[in-house]
Amino acid sequence: MYIEINHSKLGKSAEAIDDYLSSMIKYMNLSTDKVNGLIARDWLYADANTFKNQWAKNNDATSVTNQMKASLRSYSNALKYAEQQYKKAQSTAVNKANSL
User: Fold this and answer.
1) Spatial contact of 15 and 75, defined as CB atoms under 8 Å apart
2) What is the pLDDT of residues 7-37, one digit of tens each?
3) What is the tens place of the pLDDT at every residue in 68-92?
4) DSSP string, 48-79
5) How far apart are CA 44 and CA 48, in angstroms?
6) 17: how many CB neighbours lie within 10 A of its CB?
7) Do 9 and 89 touch, CB atoms closer than 8 A?
8) d(C-alpha 17, C-alpha 10), whole Å
9) Cβ neighbours for 96, distance < 8 A, ≥ 6 positions apart
10) What is the pTM assigned to this prediction?
11) I want to staple 76 with a disulfide (CB 3.0 to 4.6 A). Which of 10, 17, 97, 98 is the partner?
């Protein structure tokens, strides 16, 4: 008797996180482009630069946005590693059992 882990669910979860992270990065970049374009063309008042500087903080290394991206990458990598390890352990256990 052995424990069987459905390791494919770990991989699918990691893939979903990677997809979410890609979308997040894409939409943050689009938003930054929109803000920069708005300020360059249409928003010519004194508060425009203040807003632009506040928006730029989203891309700072210590921003919540970048911390979230790093956390999602880390979690995805942990799931991928767990998937590989469970797959390997399951295969090893089955091979040992079959050799008896």
Assistant:
1) no
2) 899 999 999 999 999 999 999 999 999 988 8
3) 999 999 999 999 999 999 999 888 8
4) HHHHHHHHHGGGSTTSHHHHHHHHHHHHHHHH
5) 6
6) 19
7) no
8) 11
9) none
10) 0.80
11) 17
